[in-house]
Amino acid sequence: MANTTGVRQSKLKRLVFAPQTTIGTAETLDASTLAIPVIGTPEMSPSRGTKRISRADVLDAYAGEAIGVIGSVGWTASWSTEIHDTSGPTYYPYWAQILMCAGHEGDYDAGTSTVTFKPTTKELVNWAAPTTADSDPACATIALLHNHNDSGNDAYSVMYDSVGSVGFNFTTGERATMDCSFSGRVEAGGLYNTGSIDIASTGSFGQIQGAPFVCKAMNVTLTDNTSSQVVTTVAINNVVISSNIEMSDVNDMTDAHGFALSPSFQNSGASVAFEVADGGGATGTERYLMQNLLAGNQMAMTLGITGSAGRSVEFNAGKIQFDDVGFGETNGYSTFTVNGTCVRTAGTNDDPYTFVWTFA
């Protein structure tokens, strides 16, 4: 469509993401800033804080409400994105940089050509350019570039000191995707900016042009930790993993908008949900899924997906306890629907899960 004076095309929106080299200072957005392959329309809203404070309780001798005042204001943003097979080698592709700003750290291993991402309790650090090294968690500057057209009426919104939480979705025959939810601070330019950056030249599309991983020919293994028995599964599908990392509001009366940088805390375990076909029999899925729920045992899960030239991503959880197992139905066949939580042994620092990127 051609834009008009009053209506512009939502397809032209663009989300760019830049881990911050200095905590507390928004990154400069330019042609090298990563553009994210967002699915659908991202949501970004100044929904945190007290915002307009009502003065309806003030007695001033008249009915109705006196003019309010503005309190604290902070951003939230959410979007879904593809998980891409990225050549290079690219040690920390765009989705990995999102993970690093969502309460994860990255362990680089030259011998295996991998970076292993896992939840972390480490303090946020200034981001260094992605290299062949370990990386600690960071925060990000995120911008929603609203539109660009030939008249030069560029508009954009920026949040900085942003941290978040992520989830992963693996559905048979579909793209592997990641759900992202972030909280951030209001940048000095305000909530809606025009003119100071050129949207047409902002954002690098190099990684968007790669191919997303597709959920087929995957390696999925469930193992009973008590018996070491590999569980026979039939037609496993719809694996959904949520990190359940929380972003805590830190109120700061010295800040212009009332917020300091938020931390990312994993106070509860990551959740895992999936479905499998009912294979029947006392030694099949029925026994292990139902009896393990009753016994409180744990299962280990490995879920891997391979792209081009041997590059792959793999989710590993060493201990999943089932919260519930139900009976379902998909396309006329019986299924088990499973919901579980990634746990660790009390008093140990076991990784509740890892997400391994093999880059070469």
Strand residue percentage: 35-45%
Oligomer: single chain
Tell me how many strands there are: 23
Could you tell me the radius of gyration in angstroms? 23 Å
Poorly predicted ranges: none
Number of helices: 2
Query: What's the shape?
Result: globular
Structural class: mainly beta
Tell me, rounded to a whole number, the average pLDDT. 89
Largest sheet: 17 strands, antiparallel
Note down, in words, how this protein is organized.
By secondary structure, this protein is mostly beta strands. It is 5% helix and 44% strand. It has a 17-stranded antiparallel sheet that branches. It has a two-stranded antiparallel sheet with strand order 4-5. Strand 21 (312-330) and strand 22 form a beta hairpin. The longest helix has 11 residues, at 285-295. It starts with 13 loop residues before the first strand and ends with a strand. The mean pLDDT is 89.
Index terms:
single chain, 360 residues, mainly beta, 17-stranded antiparallel beta sheet, two-stranded antiparallel sheet, 2 helices, 5% helix, globular
Topology overview:
Layout: E1 14-19, E2 34-35, E3 38-48, E4 52-55, E5 66-70, E6 74-82, E7 84-85, H1 94-100, E8 104-109, E9 114-119, E10 140-147, E11 155-170, E12 177-186, E13 193-194, E14 211-212, E15 219-224, E16 234-242, E17 246-247, E18 264-265, E19 271-277, H2 285-295, E20 298-306, E21 312-330, E22 333-342, E23 354-358
Short description:
This protein is mostly beta strands and 360 residues long. The chain has helices spanning 94-100, 285-295, and strands at residues 14-19, 34-35, 38-48, 52-55, 66-70, 74-82, 84-85, 104-109, 114-119, 140-147, 155-170, 177-186, 193-194, 211-212, 219-224, 234-242, 246-247, 264-265, 271-277, 298-306, 312-330, 333-342, 354-358.
